[in-house]
Fold this protein.
Amino acid sequence: MQYSISKKNNIIEGRINLPASKSISNRVQIINALSYSFEPIKNLSTCDDSKVMQEVLFSNTNVFDVGHAGTSMRFLTAYLSKILGEWTLTGSDRMKERPISVLVDALNSLGAQVSYLEKEGYPPLKILGSNLTGEEVSLKGDTSSQYITALLLIAPTLVNGLKIKLEGKIVSRSYIEMTLNIMKEFGIEYEFKGNEIFVDKQAYKVMPYTVEGDWSGASYWYAFMALAPKGKLFLDGLKKNSFQGDSGLIEVFEKLGVKTNFSKRGMYIEQSNEVCKKLIFDFIEMPDLAQTFAVVSALKNIPFHFKGLETLKIKETNRIAALIDELAKLGYVLHEPKEGELAWDGEMKEVTEEIIIKTYHDHRMAMSFAPIAMLRPEIKIDDPMVVNKSYPNFWEQLKEVGFHIEES
Ligand SMILES: O=C(O)C1=C[C@@H](OP(=O)(O)O)[C@@H](O)[C@H](O)C1
Ligand SMILES: C=C(OP(=O)(O)O)C(=O)O
């Protein structure tokens, strides 16, 4: 299935209620499971990645398939390794290409029994849940912060607590801070000094929790606004002082002509006249936004040089390759100046064929390319339902603010 998206007057106006953050939803679900809490999680995300977490945690079987959900795979590996039983944890074909050895090695060094069922270093995993007695672990921080979050979440429940030593460069650090902030809300004390995190054995507070709206999902509405001739859009559900590193998009979108306002009636975005000549930015703290900014910058004819993209090749798809290939279909010639970088210097090539954007089972490919409808409504987006991974009602909300979606 493919979607063509268009809007008669191209003016973006209305109110959007952002979905709940899947990152927060999945952390809180693990915390509740670790503390045997049945207190409600209000505004829990209904996306695939959060639903699959819920299914595993409330399942009667011992074989679990988490599909494309990276956080579920990583957080559950740590969780299940301390729950007595024999577990099999698998995922989609792509999940079997996403590395997990840094986490598995760390857990095994603490006394866990996690082994590989197919390729060494990758899911599927066999996990023999046991009592983890180790109290100190060292791991590399340069591949995925999700391994560190997975260890942090179980840390207060281990017999001796846990000291985590991070080696080398730390990627996606904002997500480690999100984890620690949420743990703090649940009453956990910790110390993060230099490259070491100390968590003593403690009990999570049993309490109801409300999940905040998703800043990563908000980025697509900012993108529509950046490409629209005129508009004013209220965004509901987002917190100004959020734990989500992606809330940093406010400053970056200011460089692309979108202003954020916090008023009594809520938060809203609108155009400003200030647009930078070239966007140079390091995405190491906000990896999920690289696609949004690449598409918007290119379509606004703003050359860019992005850094800090080292983790993009092991996400839902190789996002560097996907951006180069799909923006090439629109004529933009992107290049990789170095590993972990992506740039567009303004070079264009001629394009004649009909344009169908491939999404590679990656929700963010579909959502980051959707705003091109403001300028190129003839372009089609393939396999649009991939958005369910994090933002199930994305297309419905587009319709609510006046977009027409044609299916083919
Ligand atoms: O902890 C989290 O919730 C996430 C961490 C990031 O992954 P990496 O740490 O692998 O970069 C991010 O890309 C992902 O969407 C969600
Ligand atoms: C990378 C992502 O998700 P995950 O790693 O949790 O699959 C994402 O949502 O962009």
User: Anything to note?
Assistant: The longest strand covers residues 266-275. The two ends are 6 Å apart (CA to CA).
